[in-house]
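Weekly sync notes, structure subgroup
Attendees: PM, AL, DS (notes)

Item 1: joint prediction request from the bench team. They want all two components modeled as one assembly rather than separately. Inputs as received:
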Amino acid sequence: MNPHRSGSLSALLGMTLVSLMAPAAQAAAPESTGVVMKNFMFVPTSLTVDVGSTVTWTNQDGEPHTVISDSGLFRSAALDTNDKFTFRFEQPGTYHFVCSIHPQMVGTIIVK
Amino acid sequence: MTDEISLPGRRKALRCMALGGAGTLFALAGGVFTPIDLAVAATDPSRAIPAGKPLFVQISDTHIGFNKEANPDVDATLNRAVDLVNGLPDQPALVIHTGDITHLSRPTEFDLAQQMLSRLRASELHTVPGEHDVTDPTVSEYFNRFRKASERRGYYSFDHAGVHFIALINVLQFKPGGLGTLGDEQLAWLAEDLRGRSASTPIVVFAHMPLWTIYQPWGWGTADAEQLLSQLRRFGSVTVLNGHIHQIVQKVEGNVTFHTARSTAYPQPTAGDGPGPGPLVVPAAQLPAMLGVTSVSVVAHPHTLRLTDRTLA
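Output from the run, pasted for the record:
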């Protein structure tokens, strides 16, 4: 896949889950940073990342959790213990999310 | 047990205690509550349970798909619960499942749960979903399978033996902070459903999350439940049955009796005891005594319902 095509593809995919990294962007490679679900909390509750970063949520609890964005931008299935969910943030902004099974669990990703 | 509508005296309560098996028994008579809160050790599980023929059995939180330490075999404990219900000397006409049928909303889990529940001898099964049943990407798995529920996005009502049953759903929307929500559309539907019904009609309401606030920090409650209660208060006998918390908590407020059920899968800690409402690991020998079902019978028809909680051991 040539860089131009992958760039277009990324733009098209835009807000959806991306499993391929854009090869041309390696010089400023986005980091994968993480949130864990532990003891019925998202840890950290608020995470700041760069535009283009992929955030990985990992469930470390004995109960399943989900990651559902308030805006409808991203939504995981039920994550069992050790399951992960990833989402790449292409746009700056503040993104609130909640666990739909335990809605007292809330978190925020701040994308700069 | 006689059919009189009266406050059961202590002598009768003790006789009930002697005849009953494992579990908790309480009676509501003529709108006045007499708490007979009994916890009887299962000295002889083969003894017949007294009182009227069970109208229905409530089963809850089967969590098919769960396989962690708190219960590595939820299929086996559900099968035991089904055997328990099938073994009742008088069969209930209905079984009501108050949700968390599955653990992860997966098709294979729904398949297996439906297969196991189909072994129930009772001719009718009525369900409401729990929050664990609505996590599939399109939130359609539960609704496609339980057709009656899908007609109105999960809520419905029906009548049986003079009792009006109302199934409500409080797991599709949620308030940040965690309580369940009924929503305006469902509450408006309920107002229409109750319009014109005689106040002497016994009402049974069932929904997954507790319809009163048991413990807000863990989401054990429903944010707009008061709007529901205000519609129900005019009725002479209202029984509210919920699940979600995997333990029995009960409350009486006027003519309204609230009761949550045990799970058939795993217990949870009591409110506030730990970081959250996760599975509670107990010694294997103790587990069956913390799982079970609730049977509801009509005594002194048509005004009173008696709830009997039974454990698997």
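Discussion: The domain at 29-111 of chain A is CATH 2.60.40.420 (Immunoglobulin-like).
Action: AL to compare against the crosslinking data before next sync.
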